[in-house]
Every structure is written in C-alpha cells, then in structure tokens.
Amino acid sequence: MNNTVKTLDKDTSDKVSFITFIVPEFAKAYKMNIQSAYWYLKKYGGWDFLNKHWWALHTDNLPYALHSIYEICYKNGGQR
C-alpha cells in the first residue's frame, strides 16, 4: 500500500486559493449565486482569462480585478 501524500506546489496552491476567493466575490459583486457565476465565467471566457492571468489579477485591488474579468465576459457576449 502506497501512503504517499501528494501536495500541490506553491504556485498551484496560490492559484487555487485565488480562484476559490475570486469566484464568490465575482458572484457577490454581480448579484449571482456562486454556481451561476461559475457558469457565466465559463460561457463568456472569464474562466479561461482567470486561469491564464490569475497571477496579475491577484495583484490588483479587488474591484479592478472583478471589473477586468467582467469586461472579458462582456466582450464575449455576457450581459451587463
């Protein structure tokens, strides 16, 4: 039996922490539940943007980061 526990590297752990923080904040800011926010982000490109640019987004202040994600979604057909 293999009792090896695999842990995430720091970069992956930081990314997961940021994404699990920002999606509920996005939901709150745009008056959605978390599941709706996730599907909205997936449908309109915000999820890909978030995964690709999380490092830069996490250095921005929260309102700016949320607005940046929302603008990507809007440009891809998301509603205002």
Strand content: under 5%
Name the overall outline.
elongated
Low-confidence stretches: none
Query: Which sheet architecture does the biggest sheet show?
Result: none
Output the number of helix runs.
Answer: 4
Helix content: over 70%
| Count of beta strands | 0
User: In terms of structural class, how would the helical and strand content be classed?
Assistant: mainly alpha
Question: Alpha-carbon distance between the termini?
Answer: 54 Å
Average predicted local confidence, pLDDT: 93
Rg measurement, Å: 14 Å
Can you write the helix and strand succession as a string? HHHH
Structural commentary:
The protein has 80 residues and is mainly alpha-helical. The protein is built from four helices and no strands. The longest helix is centred in the N-terminal third of the chain and has 20 residues, at 10-29.
Give a short synopsis of this structure:
With 80 residues, the protein is mostly helical.
Short key terms for the protein model shown above:
80 residues, mainly alpha, 4 helices, 70% helix, 0% strand, elongated
